[in-house]
Amino acid sequence: MTAAQGGDRGALDQLLRRHYDRVHAVCRRITGHEADAADATQDAMIAIVRNLARFDGRSSFGTWAYRIATNSSLDELRRRKRRAVVSTTDDGEHPHLELVDPAGGSRIEAIGDHLALDVALRSLSDEYRLPVVLRDVADLDYAEIAAVLDLPPGTVRSRIARGRAALAKALSTQPGNQPTDPERPSRAP
Amino acid sequence: MNDDELPTRAEVASAYLDGELDAAERAPVSADAETMAMVEAFSQVRSALGSVEPADDDVKASAISAALAQFDAVQLAATRIPAHVAATVTSLHTRRTRAYRVLPGLAAAAVILVVAIAALNATKGSDSKTSSVAATRPPAAVDAPAGSPVLKAATAPAGTAASGALATESAPLAPAINNANDLARYAASLARDTVAPAATSAAAAGAYGGASPAASTPGAAPAVPPATCLSATDAVLGPISVLGTPAFAIRDTATGAVRAIAASNCQVLIPAP
Predict the structure, then answer these.
(1) For testing contact with chain B, the best of A158, A180, A181 (most B CBs within 10 A)
(2) A93-107, A133-147, B137-151: lowest mean pLDDT where?
(3) CB-side exposure of A59: number of CA atoms within 13 Å?
(4) What is the rounded CA–CA span in Å between residue B174 and residue B171?
(5) Which residue, among B218, B246, B226, B216, has the nearest Cα to B137 in the 3D structure?
(6) Which residue from A69, B109, B171, B244 has the highest number of Cβ atoms inside 10 Å of its Cβ?
(7) Count of CB atoms situated within 10 Å of the CB of B122
(8) Which domains does chain A have, with CATH numbers?
(9) What is the pLDDT of residue B186?
(10) CA distance linking residue B163 with residue B249, whole number of Å
(11) What is the CA radius of gyration of chain A?
């Protein structure tokens, strides 16, 4: 890490390779889409390099990198929403509409557990999905997640629990105590 | 209900799974089958979330290459400096140390400069020091535009052997002489005993390396007339400007007659009456 900050290209290469898979996993779970995850991960890698000199070591490098990955994923989601807006291809007389990213709409392909999980994750709003992903994918503790998301630790703890409960229900597990309160962590209509 | 209210069963199960409960809190959870079932369900969620298929190798290589390209761009930008600067790149610490090392020298130089300026100013304000300063540098042209008839040369102490140098200092103030009457007034304004005899003036000319002042400063009027232009009894009163021509007022100490000669060739411009 220090060598990479000092301009050692080889050390930087190793650092990026070491963290790539986990950063990709975070991006994959937040975006819920492989292509978006690839873009978000690449953006995160570039952002890590660009901001490496500013990393002051107050948190672990992983925590810092996951914060960047989270932000790049959210940026990618915002871009995806813009891409999902229909665009026109005008042939002169018969303009028609087509989806730029057909998968950006209702991408429900219930084939296998992974896709079911993606669907379940997409059903969660960001406020629940992000803490769960940072906990279960990035393996950050509550304090680190609180720092990344700028939330009180108590809120992080509560949102992780609710998010997990919603996912467990969506995946047809039997958590035993389904969240039935009005603030069920689902995507707002 | 908000996120910070009393923990629900799900929160307890979640915290249990994450190891966020201490021993006292874990004991009742472990004894509660329903809560433990939830813990198990959450554990399965965690496993599912964590099982992300690794990215394709090409995608990974492409992303890392892009990041390294960013690194290279930053490095390249840092090296886009002139070669002579790049060749002397030093660490910030070294630069700071070097700066601290140089600062006393700069301060000393500044003090010397200030003292020198103050000395020069003091010299200009004191005629008695003018000669010594002026004598250390080549004479200036005496064909400066005629200015006010202030005659610094008139106050020069006798026998300082620096009338030429004085002329240099007062060159811009060379009085404008248009005719014999002007020259007579000019001469009368000077105290006879303050003017160095010609021989001394000639010696002053020799002080500039033995060469004629005119020769040492090509194109410039001499600060003192060549000795060959003067007789043994001539004394230089000072530089003047005769109708715009650089000249010298010369008094024959034997007769008291005053004449003006051209500074360039000793031609008599205003003859002695």
Answers:
(1) A158
(2) B137-151
(3) 18
(4) 5
(5) B216
(6) A69
(7) 10
(8) 2-82+102-172 (1.20.140)
(9) 85
(10) 12
(11) 19
pLDDT at B81: 55
Note the Cα B137 to chain centre separation in Å. Answer: 22
Residue with tokens 């490095």: B75
Which residues 70-89 in chain B show a CB within 8 A of chain A? 70-72, 74-75
Cα B241 to chain center, whole Å? 37
Which carries the bigger pLDDT value, residue B80 or residue B53? B53
DSSP classification of residue B207: T
Residues 6+ apart with CB under 8 A from B226: B202, B205, B212, B214, B266
Tell me the C-alpha distance between B222 and B138, whole Å. 10
CB A163 within 8 A of CB A132: yes
In the predicted structure, residue B170 carries a pLDDT above the cut 50: no
Is any Cβ of chain A less than 8 angstroms from the Cβ of B216? no
Measured distance CA(B101)–CA(B13) in Å, rounded: 65
CB contact set of B67 (below 8 Å; sequence gap of 6+): A12, A16, A42, A45, A46, A48, A49
Rg (CA), chain B: 47
pLDDT in tens, A116-129: 788 888 889 999 99
Structure tokens at B13: 């199960």
Taking all residues of chain B, what is their mean pLDDT, rounded to a whole number?
68
Residue A159 distance to chain B (closest CA, Å): 7
Mutation site for B-interface testing, chosen from A49, A122, A125, A133 by largest number of B Cβ within 10 Å: A49
B8 Cβ under 8 Å from any chain A Cβ: yes
Structure tokens at B112: 């010397």
* pLDDT confidence of residue A136: 93
**Chain B residues closer than 8 Å to A114 by CB:** 51, 53
ipTM: 0.72
Q: Enumerate long-range contacts of B116-125, CB under 8 Å, 24 or more apart.
A: none
What are the CA-CA distances from residue A110 to residues A26, A132, B41, B242, B253 (Å)? 21, 22, 20, 114, 128
